[in-house]
Known about the structure:
2 copies of one chain form a homodimer.
Chain A: E1 4-7, E2 10-11, H1 17-28, E3 34-41, E4 46-53, H2 55-72, E5 88-97, H3 101-119, E6 123-127, H4 138-142, H5 145-155, E7 175-179, E8 184-190, H6 195-205, E9 215-222, E10 227-234, H7 242-255, E11 260-266, H8 271-281, H9 293-302
Parallel strand pairs in A: 5-7, 6-7
Antiparallel strand pairs in A: 1-4, 1-5, 2-4, 2-5, 3-4, 8-10, 8-11, 9-10
Helix pairs in contact in A: 1-2, 2-3, 6-7
Amino acid sequence: MQPIIECVPNFSEGRDAPKIEAIENAIASADGAVVLHRTSDPDHNRSVITFAGPPEAVLEGAVRAAAAAAKLIDLRVHKGVHPRLGALDVLPFVPVRGATLEDCITLAHRAGERIWRELSVPVYLYEAAARQPTRQRLENVRRGEFEEIREAALVDKSRQPDIGGPALHPTAGAVIVGARRFLIAFNINLQTSDLQIAKDVARAIRTSSGGLPAVKALGLPLVSRNLVQVSMNLTDFQLTGLYAVYNEVERHAAQHGIGIAGTELIGLMPRAAIEEAAASFLKLESFDSQRIVENRIESVVESGK
Amino acid sequence: MQPIIECVPNFSEGRDAPKIEAIENAIASADGAVVLHRTSDPDHNRSVITFAGPPEAVLEGAVRAAAAAAKLIDLRVHKGVHPRLGALDVLPFVPVRGATLEDCITLAHRAGERIWRELSVPVYLYEAAARQPTRQRLENVRRGEFEEIREAALVDKSRQPDIGGPALHPTAGAVIVGARRFLIAFNINLQTSDLQIAKDVARAIRTSSGGLPAVKALGLPLVSRNLVQVSMNLTDFQLTGLYAVYNEVERHAAQHGIGIAGTELIGLMPRAAIEEAAASFLKLESFDSQRIVENRIESVVESGK
Lengths: 305, 305
C-alpha cells in the first residue's frame, strides 16, 4: 500500500475566513493532498489544518501552504495570544502508514529547503528533524517570538535559522519545520469518583515515573459522570499501543478493586493502531493486515491489476 | 465510502491453466473488478476465483465470467469428483462494506437476467436470492448434476430454472446464482489436549444447540500442537462478531479451568469485523470508522475534494 504522511500546518491567521479558505485551497490544490480537518481560534488568531496523502503530495501541499501564508499574512500587524514566529508558524510531518519517522525527517528537510529557495522564508528545524539538540523543543525555537527573534537572528548565531537567513522574512518571519510520530490521545474512564485512584494509575503507567514506554498520563475528574479518567497520550503507538495501555490500566485499577467504565479516542488514529489492538486482544496468530478484504483490494489495485 | 461487494464464482475447470487464466482475465477486464484470490483443484476439476469491487463492477465481472466459462468449458466432456451443474457453476454475491444482503439479492437477480438474456444460459437462484424455499440449499438445486438435471428440466417443473430455460444450455448447463452474507472462518485453540473440552465448548456456543446466533462450531484435535480447537464459521458477523465468540469461548473454557492458547483467521475478513472487535475489547464509547485516518482520507477523496 502506498505510504501516507500527515502534515499539520499551524498558521498565524484565525479570524479572516477568506484568507484561511485560501490557504486551505492552496493545500488541496496539490494533487493527492487531502484536507482532513481544520480549526481556527480567533483569540489565538491561529488556524490548524490537518492534511494527508502520499509523501510527494504532502511535500507539495506543505510548500503551497507556506507560499499562501507568506502572501496573505503580515506578521508586523498580527496580534493573538498564542506565540508565533511565522505566517506559516509550525509545520510538522507525521508518519501514518508505510513510512517511518526518518522518512518524515527527510521530508521536513526537503520542505525546508524548498521554502527557503522558492519563497525566501528561512526555516528552523525542530523535534525529530532538529539539527541542533536545543531545537528539539519547539518552545526553545520560538522563545521571544517574531518581534524579538528577527532582531536576535541578525546578531546572535544561536538564534539564526537552520536553512536560509540569517535575516527573517520581513512579513512572513520563519517557518518551524519538524517531524514527529503520530500521537494517539486515548482516555480510560474508571468506575469510581475517587480522583486519587486515577492519579495513582496514571503515575503507575506513565513513562516519566517508570511505567510503559512512550506514554504520557494524567488522572483527571469527570465530574459530569461522577467518574475519574486516566487521560493519555501515546507518543509512539508502535512501541506501546492501545492493547498494552488498556491492559496495564485495567491491571492497576483492579489492584484498587476498580473496573473500567469505558474509553474514548480523541481525534483520529492510524488504521495500524486499531488492527494491532484487535489482533492482540483476539490473540490472533500470524495476523497481517492483508487478511482484511479492503486492504487486500487496495494492495492489488495499487500493484496494478 | 463506496460500497464493496465480493463475488466468488466456482468454475468447472481445474486443469487447463490457459482456460482458467482466460476466465480470470475476463473478470479483471471489468473496470473496477479486482481479483483477490484463485484456487484450482485438478481432482475436482474446478476453480474458485474471489473478486471484489463496487456493485456495478462486480455485476459486469460476473457476467463476463459467465460468458468466458460458457465459451471455454463443455460440460459434456467435463469430469471431476465435485458435483456441478454449469460451466460457471455457482455465483454467490457477498456484501463486504456499505451494502446489505438485500443489495446482493438484487445484484444476483440482475446477474441472472443478464446471463440468460446475453448468453442463453439459464439460471437457478439459491440461498438468500432463492425464489423457491427449497432452493435456498445449494445441494437441493444441484442434486443429480448436469447429466440428470438437463433431462429432468424438460419434463419436471420442479427442476426447471428460475430464469430462462426450461432447457439447459447444451454445453454450459446452468448457473446457480445466489447471495449470502460474508462468512468469517475463525478458530480458537485451547490450552489442553482433551478433545472433549473443545467439543463441549463448541456445543455450548453454536446456534444449533442454543448458543450464540449465526455461529457454527466444531471441536477438533490439533495433534501437531497437542492442543484442541474450537473451529467456527461466523455466518453473520454483524449479529455475532469476533469479540462475542472470543468472550463466550473464553468463558466456557474457563469453566473447565482451561485458557485460550491462540486463535487463527482462515482466509479474509471485512474491515468492519476487525474494527468492531477492537472497539468492543477497548470499550470505546461512540467509536465510528471515520476516526481512522485512512478511512477518513478515503471518504474525503470519494466525496470529492
